[in-house]
Design a protein that fits this description.
Blueprint: E1 10-12, H1 13-20, H2 24-32, E2 40-41, E3 47-50, H3 51-55
Antiparallel strand pairs: 1-3, 2-3
Helix pairs in contact: 1-2
Organism: Actinoallomurus vinaceus
Protein name: Helix-turn-helix domain-containing protein
Length: about 60
């Protein structure tokens, strides 16, 4: 198995919030209003994001 590149790194809501310098609740609101799209949602409802998507302009 190969190591994932830094670009493929999966971020949790807190990581995205830190990147944008906002509260994690703000990131959840952005997902709710479709300003951000998570890479996937865990079975427990937690959002996961690809670092490359966020860094390249996740707010589009």
């Amino acid at each position: 198995m190969t190591n994932p590149t830094e670009e493929d790194e999966i971020w949790v809501t807190r990581d995205v919030a830190t990147y944008f310098r906002v509260n994690p609740k703000t990131v959840n609101r952005w997902v709710k209003v479709r300003k951000l799209k998570p890479a996937f949602v865990t079975p427990t409802g937690m959002f996961r994001f690809r670092k490359s998507q966020i860094v390249q302009g996740g707010e589009s």
